[in-house]
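User: What would this chain look like folded?
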Amino acid sequence: MTSDHPTSWQPTRLGGVEPGGGVTRYRLDSGRPGPRLLVLGGVHGNEIGGIVGAGRVTLTDWPLVAGRLDVVPITHEAANLAFVRHGPADGRDLARTFPGDPHGEPTERLAALVRDELINDCDALIDLHTSAVDADLPDFAGSLHDHTPYGDNCRALALAFGLDTVWGHPDLPPGRTLSAAADRQIPAMYVESRRGGVLDATMLAHYRDGVVRVAERLRIVAPGTAPAASPLRRLLQGNGDTDTFTAAPTDGWFVAHVELLTAVRQGQTVGSVIDHRGATLAEVTAARAGTVVFLRRLAPVTTGTPLVSVCPEIPLPTPLESDPPPLSDPPLKGAAR
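Assistant: Here's the prediction, encoded as structure tokens.
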């Protein structure tokens, strides 16, 4: 019998019981056909903002009108226990390992489990991250934005999340949760925030409310369930892969000469690497004109440490994209399930 109201969140263990060998999924099911939204936190074990942000979604029995919500607060449990980004057993980054290998190393097996049991069983994906403990990113929602119908669906989710900055990527690097979703044309987005390694009440509220706004956009919950979104202020477009950011040319201590979200010129000095006396060992310059979107916070660096990234900023449309474009029709594969 179909209930008029959702039941409480139901936890289920998927995979092994040992940390890193499985995950705990929390499900809130309306009992009615509709889209299936998946929220992942803790793909990087030391990004506790995404973990608690996802977890807080499960503290409320949201009044679902269709479909279901699946939330995994800690996706890489072994990395979280060690408070590190990579799998402690094999040194692999889960966010670079998809689609995984069920017969491979521990992180590869976990990626395959998440793909098979979670991503392939959803109609839309939100992956909650934060900046690392040693660097800052702005608060933003990111997605593929390649002007295809699929990319437009991903963009609609990112806009619906309701942050004032949205970053679009012309393509998706391999190995990510988003690329695993793209393999099956499942609309997907991710979120980043500054101040990694610490918890901030405002950021946690943004994460919870943003998830509910996306659920509203998918008609899983009724409009008006979440607070109103922030006005859109900034659109970024470019490569968001931290592996390609400007790196330290030598060992030393990094000093930033600009602030996050500063507009810079190509070739402008944005920082320097110094020695213990303060003497400059190397200058760090902007590789392009644009907006500073990644900035190293901790001073000690070695050759190859990512230091800064500059991303093009594109004009806001008129009228503003405060109302995301419609999802394609039918919007999601599970809408009739």
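The chain has two domains: 10-237, 245-314. If you want, I can go into more detail on any region.
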